[in-house]
Amino acid sequence: MNRPKQTPPDYAPAPPRSSPDEDAGEPWRLAVRNSGRVLLLFVPLAAIKALRHGHLALAESWWVVTLIPLGLVAACFAHAYLAAAIGRRRAGLIFTVALGALLVGGLYALTRYLGR
Q: Whole-prediction pTM value?
C-alpha cells in the first residue's frame, strides 16, 4: 500500500528561493528590513555604552550619536537599491570592499590623530 501522497488542492508549494545573482526585487522593502535589523542591534548596544560611560563627554559628541545610525540606515538603502540595479552578489561584493576600505581608512586616521 505505497500510494503516493496527494497534496490538497488548496495547497501551493513554496516558491523556489532566488539565487544570489538575481536582482533584489523590491529595494524599499529590503532596505527597511535591513535597516530595522541594523538598528535593532545598534541601538541597545549604544544605549548600554551610553549608560556605562555617559559621564565621558556625551554632551560634546551628540552629533556622532545621531550620525552613526543615520549612516547605517543610508548604507542599508544604498545597498538595497544597488542590489536592485546590478544584482545582490555584486552589490554585496562592492559594499564589502567599500566598508572594508572605510574601516581601514578610519583606523588609519584615528591612529594619525592619536599620534601612535
A: 0.64
